[in-house]
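Posting this for the archive.
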Amino acid sequence: MTHLITRFFNISALAFLLQFTALVPLAQAADIRVITSGAFTEAYKQLIPMYEQASGNKVISAFGASVGKAPDAIPSRFERGEKFDVVILSEGGLQDLMKEGKLIEGSRVDLARSQIGVAVRKGTPKPDISTVAALKQTLLNAKSIAYSASASGTYLSTELFPKLGVAEQLKTTAKRIFSERVGAVVARGDAELGFQQVSELIYFKELDFVGTLPDEVQQTIFFSAAQVKGSTETEAAKHLIRFLSSAAVAPLVRATGLDPVGKDK
C-alpha cells in the first residue's frame, strides 16, 4: 500500500491538468455544491484543487456517511432540505435517494469500487483474517471492535456477523461508530479492531493496516456520483462528474485505496 501512496503524491498535478483540457470548458465559472461520503474523501480532497485550477469553478464541499440517521449523514442532510448540486456516495445510498426523487434519473456515474479492510493500532499484534475461519476467530477473540455507521457497517452487522454466527457474541464487543472515522477510534485505543473501507483506514499513521476481508465474504461497493434534482448548476455538475470519472484521475483514485472505474491511459 505504501508504494501506491508514494506514487500518488509523486504524480505531477500538471499532467492531470493537461489531460483535463480535453474536457469542454464551461462558458463561465460556477459554484458547485458537493457532498461526498467517506470512502471517496481522500481522492476527492486531492482532486478538487486540481479541478478548480483547471476549470475556474469553485467547489463547496460537505462530508457525511452514505447511509444512516446521524445528523451529518447524507440522507439526514437531504431530509433537512440542504441544497447540493452533486452527491457522491455508495450505490445503496444513491439508489435510496434516487427512489425518493432527490436525484436526477440517469445521472449516476460510477467513480470507483471499494472494499472493506481491517486495521489495528500501530505496534499491536496483527490478527489473522486470511480465511473465513480465521476472521471468525479473530472477531470472537477481540475485546473491542469498531465498525462504520455507513454502508460497510450495515453489511457487517446485518449480513456478515450473522452469517459467521457471531452476531450475538459481538453485541457486547462491537460498536457502530457515528460521525467519526473508525480509524480515529482505533488510533486512540478505544477499539482493538477497526473495520471500514480501505480508503478510510490507510491514511492513519497511528494504525497498522491488516488487510481486506477474505474474498468469500468481502463486499465490493461502487461509489458513484449523481446530480441533485433542483440544482441550478446542472452543466457545472456534469462537468465536475466528468472530471472525477475520467481516465486521467484513475492513478490518483487507485492510490487512495480504491479501484477506479476510469482506466489509466
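Residues 101 and 229 are 8 Å apart (CA to CA). The longest strand covers residues 221-227.
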